[in-house]
Amino acid sequence: MAQISLVINDELDTKFRKVVATTLGLKKGNIKIAIEEAIQLWIDHHKV
What we know:
The chain is an all-alpha fold. Helix content is about 65%, strand content about 0%.
């Protein structure tokens, strides 16, 4: 399993966490699930 460390805009982080909590709940691991889904959607959208 790969590990990515990054710094993002505070406002984007707050919005993302709020949507994750609303959609998936506050359970541990839900942010990871949402980030993996977002990355997959980005890859699918930008396939060459």
